[in-house]
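Notebook entry, structure prediction.
Reason for the run: the old model in the group folder had no record of what sequence produced it. Starting over properly, with the input documented here first.
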Amino acid sequence: ARDYAAWRRAPLGPRTGQARAVVRRALTAGAGPATRRDTTEILSAYGIVLDLPRHTRPDPAAGSGGGPPSVGRTDPPARGVLTAGVRRDPEFGPAVLLEFRTATASTGDRAACMVPVTAGDTARMRRSLGYDGAVPPAEVEDLLFRLGRLAGDLPEVSRLDVGPIVAGPDGVVVVEAALRLAPARPDQVARLSSPPRPAGSDLTTPLAERR
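New structure, fully documented this time:
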């Protein structure tokens, strides 16, 4: 079984140093909501794409008279809305969330897991919601794993909401994101140097390594 340090070294390919530099730059302007540019750069460092998938973008050739795009930036998928996020509890640390709700509901079913998030955790989160929508299960689980890695690496992230999550031609895409940053307390930074909870042997292989 891998230990927490091995989990932190999982080859997701994140540009953690780049993300931390963006966080430091953003916090020079004070705590609070991050700009879309900073949010995009931080998510991109963890391989999370914030954009409309190509097949939903307006056709530039159509011009202003060509009608609206097939899917607007805020239009939810017809079957329901899949979202995810990060919440940081002052006492227990960060947790990753997954929620699925119908297009007409204001709230839906939700699953949560404290960081560190492992492959077994992400699979259980997805299955607990009974999600069988357009986004492939492996892509949902991989996104949750990446959000867990982001939350573990960046204690300044106090809240992150991403979604709707949709299936694009090149993989999963996050249509919108809202990120809040706050200076990390010394105890928050120290907490990341040791495992918040033990990892069982069945929860230790990241999805990125199984591909």
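Summary: Strands lie at 32-33, 81-89, 93-101, 109-114, 157-162, 165-168, 171-174, 177-181.
The old model has been moved to the deprecated folder.
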